[in-house]
Amino acid sequence: MVLNYIWIAFFLIAFVVATGKLLFMGDTQVFTEIINASFASAKTGFEISIGLTGILSLWLGIMKIGEKGGVVQAFARIASPVFSKLFPGLPKDHPATGSIFMNFSANLLGLDNAATPMGLQAMKQLQELNTRKDEASNAMIMFLCINASGLTLIPITIMMYRAQLGAANPSDVFLPIMLATFTSTLVAILAVCIKQRINLLQRNLLLFFGGAILFIGGVFFLFRLMSQEQVSLYSTLFANTLLFTIICGFIVSGLRKRLNVYEAFIEGAKEGFRTAVTIIPYLVAILVAIGIFRASGAMDFLIDCVRWAVGAVGLNTDFVEALPTILMKPLSGSGARGMMLDAMNTYGADSFVGRLSSIVQGSCDTTFYVVALYYGSVGIKNTRYTVPCALLADLAGAIAAILIAYLFFA
Predict the structure, then answer these.
(1) Do 371 and 387 touch, CB atoms closer than 8 A?
(2) Which of 17, 245, 286, 404 could form a disulfide with 298 if both were Cys (CB 3.0 to 4.6 A apart)?
(3) What integer pLDDT is reported at residue 228 of this predicted model?
């Protein structure tokens, strides 16, 4: 229901703003731009879905081998001490636990192409346990909110963009991004745990969060000893080596079980193709609404209002120029990336705005895209409190990004 109201709101707000521009500013092209944006967004939604077909077929094929070979169940046992607390409704050693574990691991390493298929597989397995097929379960909500918080350990893509745009030290946003995204993820977990009445003071959870903080600190200390080139080289090498090792490990596990690994792969790949087709209408719906919202000028109007309000109370307005990235991030990943690149091109990669836009880009994921993609893949219509909790995490990540940017770069 939340998505329904948000979807309608995008259209109504766009209509009001566009009508105002036509009547009071004489902008006769505004509705033409809106219609063009709707067509372009629909095309983009379809192209994204088709583009995912090959990736989904590949990884769901690999996942099917791992599932039949027992590797996914092994990952489930590894993650069980923590996941049994965060996902109390999941049966012990259920394959969904392994898929969730692998999805989170791929996200941490910045491996989006691998993380998405693993996440969709996890959603399918969670749906099998769901007693209300059109309503999100507690486990689904926890999984989606953590995903939407976008916890990433190595923001290699953002550092690459900064290097291309002439940043003196492209990796100077590494720690700020890590702190901001960790804040976003922590708020997402806290919000869902409070809503689901999960006790956060349990021993396994305290050890997990404490270990995560120590691990992030250790990675930061290690990367501080390396040059930008070494950070890029070793992080990319480690991520891709690990990924290929997992693929080979899955195949070997299938051979040990005397499986026909080729047939198992084909079985999973077929599921990937069907999933890609299923999500097309959901992606088209949300991307068209976002495209119309942007084309109407509603986004620019919102930014101008915030700039005026911040200035009126006497606060520093340096961060306002990064608001396009902040506001676009929950709506569109490619849109937010474009806003980040535009900010760095306009103000400079090493400017306050350029750095803040980079931190925001890495602080969380694209909430509405993630919700439409994952819930759409299994036909969930009632998302319950997923979107409010995910947007709360986005807000926490944005606020953390702004404060951290002032702390490091003001």
Answers:
(1) yes
(2) 17
(3) 59
